[in-house]
Amino acid sequence: MTKIESKFFDFVQRHLPIFLIAAATILGMVIRYCGRSYQSGDFISFLNPWWSQIEAGGLCGLKTQVGNYNIPYQIIIYILTLFPLKSLYTYKLVSIVFDVVLAISAGLLVNEVSGKKSDFVFALTYSLVFCSITVCFNSAFWAQCDSIYVSFILLSIYFLLKNKNIASFVLLGVSLAFKLQTIFILPVFLCYYITTRKVSILHFLIAPAVDVVMCLPVVFLGRNPVDIIKIYVEQTDYGKYIQMNCPNIYALICDASDTSNYDLLKTVSIALTVVILGIGLCMLIRKRVNLADKNKFMLTSIWTAFTCLMYLSSMHERYGYLLDILLIVYVISNRKHYWLAAACNLVSLRGYCHYMFNYDISMRFTAIVYVAIYIYVSYLFVKDVVLNSDDNENEAVLNLIKA
Question: Domain segments of the chain: what residues?
């Protein structure tokens, strides 16, 4: 090997994380470029008409609700209509920008949870998240914006684990301002508050306050402030189906097309979710678990998000987005249970392929797999978070669960 070759490989070795990020970014952008012209049913039926309506109404048009997205996203759409850009590409471009933010946030969070500031691990996490097929499909094919709210959730967790509470709850509020699905992560913040006593109940007021502040521009234009709450309330009844292409427990026990008992089932689903999350919180309190332990915090986050997804009504296939990213962060930072992240991402991919490409895999079979994964995650939550391995009482409970 010549000296030039040797120096080249030494240079690559020293800067391997940079090369990995560059390669992943190029690969991810190539995948996204392939989906640039794809028009999903959501774009044709909702996103494009919303764009046209906001564009026609101008600034004053923001005084009235367009579609069912929250006000900050409508403000972004209005700003983008001021430029000579096609709606399809613009929607996708915004989401792709946040795909980058999401990948960076995931890398930062992995380093924080693992306690090792590794450039290579950061680059690996960035690469896996940015090139994740469901992340690519969500933004560049479907023109959806789930990377926005999940990015802010990851950053919120990152700052919470660094004991920067105000920044954490501000970012949580930004996430809430974009998507109601932010509530999937709220239970773990409540558990953290109770078990660590590192935050105040007053911090929880920051998140809704940020949501309100981000909506104020249209209130100043004359819009009814009640809309800030009304939008999300109405979203909870959208579709009137107990299950919407999400392979949760209702895919096994209910007829997805039956809307006759929707109101009752919705009430039952909320009550069931609250009860199960409450049981989890009681176990944490009873065993005096300290969620300041970053690995326990992450596993609890995964369990709470999965519980909401499994038992709440009207869950879409895209609502597993947060869970999939949390699992990627968890398995990389802990270097175990890799199959969990792979399995849940494949389940999500099934939903994407079914919606976008009419590729059909049995919903019932997928639901059986998803419920089984949830049961295993619940087992890990009890074993690794709730129970102390050298406590005889805990060992007895664990043996009972195994039996």
Answer: 17-402
